[in-house]
Structures are given as structure tokens and as C-alpha cells.
Task: structure prediction
Amino acid sequence: MALSDWPIKKKLTAILLLISGLVLLLTSAAFATYEVMAVRQTTLKNLSTVGRVIAANSTASLAFANEADAKEILSALRAEPHIVAAGLYDKDGRLFALYPPTLRRADLPSAPARDGYRFERGYVIALEPVAEAGSPRLGTLYLQSDMKAVSRTLRLSAAIGAGVMAISLLAAYFLAALLQGGISHPILALAKTAQQISVRQDYSVRATKLGEDELGVLTDAFNQMLGRIEDQDRALRGSQDQLQRHATDLEQRVAERTQEIEQRSAELLAANTELDAFAYSVSHDLRAPLRSIDGFSQILLEDYASQLDDAGRDSLQRVRAASQRMATLIDDLLKLARVTRAEIRTEVVDLSTMAREIVGELRTSNPERQVDVAISQGLTARGDARLLRVALENLLRNCWKYTAKQPRAQIAFEAAEGNGERVFVVRDNGAGFDMQYADKLFGVFQRLHSAAEFEGTGVGLATVRRIITRHGGRIWAEGAVDQGATFSFTL
Result:
């Protein structure tokens, strides 16, 4: 488990033990260092005392070159178990006597070094001059002592330190386990309260304050926060109740509006049925009288023309023209009704080929006209081919019709990209229109030119707009009088 995931009790205990252990370790190290240094100084002091005594007793032996006396003096070192080697050198630096007797001359330096006491190669080395007061130097005493006393002191200090540390850490552990509760208990109580609130969603619960320290301040702040949350929760529950009432009212209104829509849909369905019946009546019942009026007027003109004056014949011509115009209006209205109700069958439509076919039919019906027609290649769209043909045919026939008075008529069908969508454009250089009346272009029976100028019923553009709208697109027009018109649409 990572340290950050430890329980707070364990963290506090570990922190206290770590601090205590570090303090004990540093204290023990300082104590051991002091003991070792003290033992070293004591060893040097003791060896110095022994060296001065032996050197003072060896003056006569060196002065009279009494080797036996010198060996006897050195043998007194048996009382110092730490002395492992000793040697007495004459004034010329030659080894005069050594201790212990089993020691080889090669184990001692061949000549004495500078005087003094020092630690060297794990031993304490002493070089004490041998001389009488006021007399020249007679020789040098060499002593070599081991470091067993230092090692024994170091081991003893380490053992004492380890024992003290173990006992101290054990005591620190029990004290930490006992004292950490004063810190961890308020925190654990606060965490337990937060967990209960989170599980039960009961914001009326309050944490118990256990002291006036920082944890007490934290508990007060936590309880104040709970109070604010409780007030907000109470207000929110009231808002939710109010919202629930509004939702219930809204559902009731939606149900009422749905019922009203269903009723209106039924009424609309009945109206459509009546409209179908009316269209059938117009198609069959009204056309027959119009055909009779036109037919009998033609008979009068053909069989009784000689019995009529010019005014009578003109009146009959007017009757025929009016009946034919009314028949055309009826046909256009029926086409508009069929376009509105026809089912759309979506497919990929080649508008370029369709436009060329329509222009070909117009050229066949008016071979005497010379019109420049520019149709872009590869114009395709997804839609109902039958309805799109009706729309494109109305637009191109309008161009053909309103360019009739131009000496050099021009018609174009192309496409452009605008605002992330494809826009199809049909333009001409014909009669055009005044832009202030542009909103009337797509209304039924709305015409900006008289029938004397250009024939028509005013239903074609209304039919085009309904087709484009049913394809989810839009159509608009731009133009100027005697400068042509441009019709743009999207699908």
C-alpha cells in the first residue's frame, strides 16, 4: 500500500516512530563517537606515561651499554597487556634491545622515526627520547600498542546504544499509539460524519466538536457548510416540487394540445378529402361546360359568321378566349394541388440532361426563335425526378417567355457554392421585374406583367416554390426591369 493510502492512525504512529528513531540514532552516534575519542585519548595518555617511565629507567643501560639490564627493564612491560612490541635504540639508531623476546628484529623499524605518539596502521605508536636531564640524548624508546581497548569500547557503546534504541522505540510506539488518538480521533469523526451524509443524503447531521484547536475550527466550518447545504437542499426540493407541478401541468397541456392537433388533423383530413372531391368536380364537371361554351362559340363563328357583324364576331372571339383561359387556370390549379399532395420519391436526378430536354421541347414549339442557352455539365441533385422536372420546366419556360422581346435572348442554368450549400441558378436577360414587388412573385395568381404583354396564369412560380419547399430547400429571385431575372434555389 502506498504511503498516501495508509490510515491516518498508522501515518501518525509512523511519523512519531521515525522522528524518535532518528533522534535516538543521532544521539547514539554522538555518544559512541565521544566514547571512542575518549578511549583513544586515554590510550595515548597511558602509553605516554608508560613510555616516559621506561625511557627514564633505560638511561643507565644505554649509557653503560648494558644489554641485559635493558632487556630486564623492557620485560617490565608484561604488566601492560596491550603493548605488543617494544624496542630500545641507541643514539646511533641501532636496535639495542627488544620486547618480547620472541619478537624478530625485522618486525621493528630499522631506525626510529620522529618522536611523538600517533595512531598508525591500527596501532598506537610511541617514540620517546631516552636522555638524562642536562645530558645529550642517549637513544630512543619505541612502543607499539594494540587498539583492543578502543574496539571493546566501540562494541560496548554500540550494544548499549542498540539496547537503548530498542527500548526507547518500544516506549515511543506505545506513546504514539496512545497520543495519536488526540489528533486522529477528530479527523476520523469528521470523515465518518461526511461518509454518513454522503450515503444517507441527510444534511441535518452535524459533526461533534472535540476541541478548540485547528481541528475544532475545521469542524465548525464543516458544520456551517452543512447548514448552508441543508438550506440549499431544502430550497432545491421546493423548486423540484414546483417543477414537478409545472411538469404535470405541461404534460396536461401537451395532452390537450395533442388532442386538439389530432382533432385539427382530422378536420384537415376531411378538408383534404373535400378538396379532392372539389378537384374531381373541377376536373370533370367544370371542364365540360367550358368545352361546350368554346365549342358552340366556334360553331357560331364557322356557320353563322356571315349573319354576324364585326362586333358580334369579336364578342364570340372574346368568349372563346375567356373560356380557354379559364380552362388553363383550372389545369394549373389542378397541377398545383397534385404537386402539394404528391409523394416524394428520392433518387439522383441529372438536372443538366433534364434542362436540355426541356429547352429542346421549347425550340421545337418555337422554331423561329433564336435563343442562346448555356447549361452547365454534370448538375445533379437528390430529389423526386417528376417534381423537379415540373419546377425546372416552369423556370425555363418563364425565361423563354420573358426573353421573347429581346433581339438576342440569353438563358443560363448553372450552379454555385454559397454558405456551405449548393445553389442552382436559372437566369435570363429578359423583361425582368422591379425588386420592390419580389415578394409577390411566388404567390398564386400574382403577376407583375399583364396578360397582354406576356401570357400566363400566375400559378407557375407558386408551383415551383411548393416543390422546392417539399425538398427542404428555398428559392429566391433577383432582377431589374428590362435587365433580366435570376432565380436561385437549393435542395
Remarks:
- Residues 187 and 215 are 7 Å apart (CA to CA).
